[in-house]
Amino acid sequence: MNSYCLQVVGDYACFTRPEMKVERVSYDVITPSAARALFETILWKPAIRWRIRRIEVLQPIRWINLRRNEVGAVISTSNVQQAMNAGAGSLALYVEDERQQRAGLFLRDVAYRVHAELDVRTGEPRQKYEEMFQRRAGKGQWVNQPYLGCREFAADVRLVDAAAPGPVPIPETRDLGWMLHDLDFGNSASPQPRFFRAQMQAGVIEVPAFGEAAA
């Protein structure tokens, strides 16, 4: 199975810890689910699934406190369904009424190399999707703008040769604690998070298979 590597750079990032309910606090490094989303900005189809295998941290972990204006509400799903059934309805959300100021602890000056494998869940040939991905990544074509946790934190992403010499990961080893691996979409109505114990060894985090993550 081919492995692909994306080199990712950004000024700011926020991979929000789910246990923080009021203020946003980022994990120390990019999570596998956020890394998967970067691959999906290049190619996503219902038939495929990206499996993140390794994360290399290329810049020292730096933090910044920011206070931002956010919208504290979302449009109700039930209101959307009622409007769809009725063919009319009010779905307006007034930003001035819902605006709230929140502080956050974010990452700054981040750079990673993320390695992933392409899993085809149907009987279709893998080569078809591998060629699509390489063609799109080579041309810099995105389904949407790649971002680092929050959509306002844009990422510079490019496909690199995983076997070629590249930037050296930071010389740091530490236990990063429990980290979100990804969501289990087995029940699409209620996706459940799964976690793993992230160990950074000389700037490299080996990501276990999704089936080995704890619910």
TrEMBL record:
<dbReference type="GO" id="GO:0051607">
    <property type="term" value="P:defense response to virus"/>
</dbReference>
<dbReference type="GO" id="GO:0016787">
    <property type="term" value="F:hydrolase activity"/>
</dbReference>
<dbReference type="Pfam" id="PF09704">
    <property type="entry name" value="Cas_Cas5d"/>
</dbReference>
<keyword id="KW-0694">RNA-binding</keyword>
<dbReference type="InterPro" id="IPR013422">
    <property type="entry name" value="CRISPR-assoc_prot_Cas5_N"/>
</dbReference>
<comment type="similarity">
    <text>Belongs to the CRISPR-associated protein Cas5 family. Subtype I-C/Dvulg subfamily.</text>
</comment>
<dbReference type="InterPro" id="IPR010155">
    <property type="entry name" value="CRISPR-assoc_prot_Cas5d"/>
</dbReference>
<comment type="function">
    <text>CRISPR (clustered regularly interspaced short palindromic repeat) is an adaptive immune system that provides protection against mobile genetic elements (viruses, transposable elements and conjugative plasmids). CRISPR clusters contain spacers, sequences complementary to antecedent mobile elements, and target invading nucleic acids. CRISPR clusters are transcribed and processed into CRISPR RNA (crRNA).</text>
</comment>
<dbReference type="InterPro" id="IPR021124">
    <property type="entry name" value="CRISPR-assoc_prot_Cas5"/>
</dbReference>
<protein>
    <recommendedName>
        <fullName>pre-crRNA processing endonuclease</fullName>
        <ecNumber>3.1.-.-</ecNumber>
    </recommendedName>
</protein>
<keyword id="KW-0051">Antiviral defense</keyword>
<dbReference type="GO" id="GO:0004519">
    <property type="term" value="F:endonuclease activity"/>
</dbReference>
<dbReference type="GO" id="GO:0043571">
    <property type="term" value="P:maintenance of CRISPR repeat elements"/>
</dbReference>
<keyword id="KW-0255">Endonuclease</keyword>
<keyword id="KW-0378">Hydrolase</keyword>
<dbReference type="GO" id="GO:0003723">
    <property type="term" value="F:RNA binding"/>
</dbReference>
<keyword id="KW-0540">Nuclease</keyword>
